[in-house]
Amino acid sequence: MNDASNSTQSKRIAVVGGGITGLSAAFHLLELADQQKQPIEVTLFESQPEAGGWIGTIDQKDYLIDTGADMFITNKPAAIELCKRLGLEDQLISTNQKYRGALILKDGQPVPVPLGFELMTPSRIGPMLKTPLLSLRGKLRMGLEYFIKCRESAAGLDQDDESLAHFVTRRFGEEALTRLIQPLVAGIYTSDPEKLSLRATLPRFLDMERDHRSLIKAIRKQKRAAKSDDATGARYGLFAAFRGGMQTLIQTLADRVSERGSLLYDQRVTKVNPAADSGYEVSSESGGVPQTQHFDAVILTTAAPSAAKITATFAPELAGLLAQIEYASTAILVNIFNLSDIRHPLNAFGLVIPAAEQRKIFAVAFASRKFPGRAPEGQVQLRTFVGGAMQPELLAHSDAELTSIVRDELKDILGVTGEPLFSKLLRHNQSMPQYHLGHLQLVEQIEQRAAKYPALELAGNAYRGVGIPDCIHSAEQAAERLFASLNS
């Protein structure tokens, strides 16, 4: 066969995992095939009966319940750009400005986050001076950050990295960490601040210190510059969701992939091995029935422990590195209550709870305060989070026990009385990768090791970002690398 005919021969590509990463990778492969007029066959393997992984939506007529992520950040463009290409822009909605803001628990009472405080840095003096979240000493210590020098460069593996706890304590003090920043960051990463890598999760704060010496000084400069800046997600605000829930994105991607490729449900991939000539043999199992298919290329989008098991037989060193990425589990109890049964006005998007409060929940999202259509008028949807890296032992409780724990906490903190109109417990086991110190160096080792295997790519939230835009970006980069290698 000559080179010309070989270049137009259809390539078979397997995508393992039908979450947001796998669906995005499969869809982008089909986009690239159209752009370059290269015939391909895409087969996506999903171990569950439906696509989406930890993202999905339950439509209960009056209630719209997101089972995992309920929105995405817009200052990372990958998700918005994908929505445009899918024709979903008109389905996007922004957060309800009436309830904008968050609460932090202090001595058992919900207290608003000071205006102008953005995850780690205060941009307004007045609200910080007035907040009851910090003592006078804690406020003075935060203010001293303006005068603190940069950290001197350190030697060793993590010379450009630092744990969240060490960084915040060094710049803002212990009280700012325990009462303000730890609960806010835990609401995103469900992580232990003593282990969380700042370079892997929130690198802009390290960069702000490097470039401006003071984070307070840097944020004030950024605020002035932002007045004339047209941000990527300006139309939607910093966060966006779908009118019909996050399942809108999942179902649209699944439909597009199914139209042009194969989407195999209840097919658990057990291993991948290089074929004798080229490509890979992908072994899967459905209902106890095994099968093996040959593919020219493979993209693994499963969680790192699953990817480790799949690659263990032919790439033990790669598998060993993948297995080093730790995960945390979380449970979400979704409740619908009558507003009349809740003492607190719920005048925010949600509540985060410092570990110092020694509670058995770490966050409550007021879902119907953030977005319309999540509960009828006069009712409210609360999504309460349990477990994470700080309290994994709580997830050993039965569903009934967890439900009782959450109900007691909601009663004590928010004054919730009466029975819920709807209740559902959602367990997300080993769902959140933990970006510990040294994570980026570990990922570099994984990428270097994976590069030794042609036409094999890794993508997902285990590597360079846990959010939905990060997953989409990871998927599209993997698809582009794979497509280029197949056509080189």
Descriptive account of the structure:
This protein starts with a helix and ends with a helix. The chain is 36% helix and 23% strand. Helix 3 crosses helix 17, helix 6 packs antiparallel against helix 7 and helix 9 crosses helix 10. The chain has 3 domains: 185 residues, FAD/NAD(P)-binding domain; 128 residues, protoporphyrinogen ix oxidase, domain 3; 107 residues, Polyamine Oxidase, Chain A, domain 2 (Alpha-Beta Complex), CATH 3.90.660.20. By secondary structure, the chain is an alpha+beta fold.
Please estimate the helix content: 25-40%
Shape: globular
Overall tally of structural domains: 3
Mean pLDDT: 92
Question: What is the compact description of this entry?
Answer:
The protein is of the alpha+beta class and 488 residues long. Helices cover 36% and strands 23% of the residues. The chain folds into three domains: 3-53 and 244-325 and 435-486, FAD/NAD(P)-binding domain (3-Layer(bba) Sandwich), CATH 3.50.50; 99-226, protoporphyrinogen ix oxidase, domain 3 (Orthogonal Bundle), CATH 1.10.3110; 327-433, Polyamine Oxidase, Chain A, domain 2 (Alpha-Beta Complex).
